[in-house]
Design a protein that fits this description.
Length: 132
């Protein structure tokens, strides 16, 4: 979760979805994969989030959060990629899992850049999520 450094939850190390469902949520555009994912997280525990504003640009979400207008949910790596000194990143206690697929067609050879990307993703996954 991302909140303004002035938000009352900003100093927490971890929070749960139950802690934030009444907070004003600034969300990505409806029907985006991340929007559906996060709204479903709330729905799966039987609560509905209070969505204040929806936008398709992550930069806008971060700016609104930095101004303490609301909070947002973004993947940790996305949240940490913003060097905004006015936001705090707070870990969610809830176990969140999602599947990611890497798909290519058999009817066409991959370009050099596609091969590099595929190899990068496979190596990254092995280094970060391998059980071995």
């Amino acid at each position: 979760m991302i909140a303004s450094k002035e938000h009352f939850l900003a100093n927490k190390k971890e929070i749960s979805l139950v802690d934030i469902f009444k907070e004003k949520l600034i969300s990505l555009k409806a029907k985006s994969s991340m929007d559906d994912f996060f709204v479903n997280l709330f729905n799966n525990i039987g609560i509905s989030p209070t969505i204040l504003y929806i936008d398709s640009h992550i930069n806008t979400l971060i700016s609104l959060v930095a101004e303490n207008i609301g909070i947002t949910l973004l993947p940790y790596t996305v949240a940490k990629s913003f060097n905004n000194k006015n936001i705090a990143t707070i870990k969610l206690k809830d176990h969140i899992e999602s599947k990611i697929f890497l798909v290519s067609t058999r009817n066409r050879r991959l370009t050099k850049s596609e091969i590099i990307f595929k190899d990068f993703v496979i190596d990254w996954y092995r280094n970060n999520f391998s059980d071995s």
